[in-house]
Prior knowledge:
The complex is a heterodimer of chains A (371) and B (423). Chain A has ten helices and 15 strands. With 371 residues, chain A is α+β, with helices and mostly antiparallel strands. A six-stranded mixed sheet of chain A has the order 4-3-2-1-5-7, sandwiched between helices. The radius of gyration of chain A is 22 Å and the shape is elongated. At the A-B interface, strand 4, strand 6, helix 4, helix 7 and helix 10 of A face helix 4, helix 5, helix 6, strand 6 and helix 7 of B.
Amino acid sequence: MATEVLPDERALRFGRRERALAAMQEHDLDALVLGRPANVRYVAGVPLLWNAGARPFGPGCVLLRSGEIYLLTTWDEGVPEEIPHDHLYGITWNPMNLVTVLQQIGAEYQPRRVGTDALSPLFAKLLPTAFANAEIVDGEPALRQARMVKTDDEVAAIRVAIDVAEAGLAVAVGALRPGASRRDLAGLFMEAIAALGVTTPATQNVVRMTSRRPGAGGDRIEAADLVTFDAGVVAGGYTGEVSRTYLAGDANGHAARVQNLYQRWDGLWARLLDACQPGASGAALLAAYEAAGEELPAEPVARGLGLGLDEPVVLRDLPATAAAQRLDPGTVLYLTGRVADPEVGEVIGSEAVLITPTGPEVLTSSPFWHL
Amino acid sequence: MPTAARRESGRTIIDIPKQPNLSRLCDERSGRLRAAMAGSGVDALVLLVNGNVSYATGASWPLSDAGRANIERPVAVVTAGDPMPHLFARLPEEMVAELPLGAEHLHEPVYLEFDEGVEKFVKILADLVPANATLAVDDLTGAMHRSRRELFREWPPRAASDVLGAARLIKTPDELATIRHALWINEQAMAEVQAALAPGVRQTDLTGLFVRRVFELGALANGLDPIWQVMPDRRGDLPWTVHGDIPCPLLTTERELASGDVLWVDTGILYGGYHSDFGRTWIVGQEASPRQQEQYHRWREISDAATNILRAGVTGADLTAAAMAVCDGRRSWMPHFYLGHSLGLDAAEMPFIGTDLGDEFDAQFVFKEGMVLVIEPIVWDEGYSGYRSENVFAVTDDGCINLSDYPYDPYGGSAVTEKSHGH
């Protein structure tokens, strides 16, 4: 992060926009009306104010097939040069004023097919009035397709985010001891990433215990607790994440079981990584758990890293989706290995993995717990 | 119009408890929600918007970045025939334990970002909601849009936000207590940040200290990337805007603060799902000059003009008129924002007073007891920068209670907290 609010680098912006425009072409879309921060950032390249949580749909940006962009912002700080002032429309609390803006765009460009990245009942009603002659369709698949495969500049941005997440993780892990508070450790993580200039987390549920003892859901960490750190940041819009499980204090007589659990994680991980071959199906990742004899977790086994909800997403409860996902070169996975022991808890470790034409490259390098 | 004296001696019928009672809060919210459903002829709600899910189910969780939040997005289904809501989510264990929901109402997440998830959800919904029910939804993923024929009998579907908006306008005493605790955490952390304010400190350092402290103090999550906007003396030294007025909030960077910098700060956190809102003007390493004190007093005059008349029965237009009356008829607030907004399970929620919703909206919006209003006028003194603060008020039958409790230092001449117009 710098001392000025700047647009994303030109190469990053144009590389992404080219992919978005190609996807629009392929999906026969004349215009995209985008509300999700990830999509707005992807096509416009402008830093946005970070708010916690999912956002309801609202038109934040319009991308036309010509490459022209209209952007919801009241000021031009961080707005790249290719988006002129007369393409900026200010914050509004009145949906009808948004409709007026969209109507003007519609009148000028006469789009036939307009895609949105989400929708609300209100805008499902209003958008047809703004784009009178257009069919309003779901445009999110086009965006997901564009965003799934990362450009080299995007991979570089993800590496930067990962570095910050790993530095924050190291600080939080350094303060782990029996008696420590989960909240305090989360606070230390947040402070550590801010010291590196990154003030936006990817997740705020940073520290959790999976021990089976009563009260393991509380704030206070006890000796022999297995403590999982989910260290995630959003830097320059890109998510960098890493997850590690540490034992607090000593194993209280369970050393062998804990050791065994980590060994099982190693075995599972070897199979997961082996499944990360270019062109492989997401189902291969689910199969890796089965082959390792480990139960599939409910949480995603893999999801894409990028600006937001990135594909592929592979999880137990969506097997058909997993089977349809392909690990193309250029996709970046956040891949999770999880093994559980009914007495001591869980070992969870997640790595960022870039699929290259020759195989997987692990981008994360945080150390693992060892006795 | 109530006088200050009457307001001080008057007794409010809102009795805000010291500690919020989660189970009573859930019961009362449920009652309000069901009344709103009945009032708008809606039989079932499908809720995806974070704040709406919290309202309907009592669940709150540490909100993540929007991208990740979309995959894990909790979903609620409320039906008129069942007093308990259904929640589809995977929440931290300790938060599940607090929920007043039985196992038959707590389900694995539904993944509405994906066709396969929506397909499953269509079947779940068929079991929970009678086929002829009037269904309302608050937000639609792309996959829901694609499966609209399977999900909805009418298109566009009814807007659940209207139902939730009506319920959420008036806060229960436990909601107010929760908001007040969120404000307390926010203010405690800001006091430490303000003490650390010095030349050479970076904006991001202030954020680091703030966020660490709010977690230590028991916040559920941080709500927004904190704002420490350095305000120049002249409007022309700020970025271009569509309306020619002041841009705010501008994003935080690693900029080092210098002695005499005027900061417009804005932070917000979550506690129990509820948002706080904190806004003050600070000066780095210096006292306020007489001119700056004058700016503050002007701001105070505008803010007081609005809050002195704020009580059940006044309209939004009464407030804007009162604020404008002390400014020669000018609107002394940011044109892209508002004189005032509410907060609760969202950081900014209805009503929005003094916006481009228009004078008619302000005129027809009548305040009622239990509503919340964050008042945030600004004073701009071209050539000498400006002043902005905000305070959160709860509306009562005979006045309002300032839920914020933070001094205006280095403005105002004394370090004493000015708890204006409280009871």
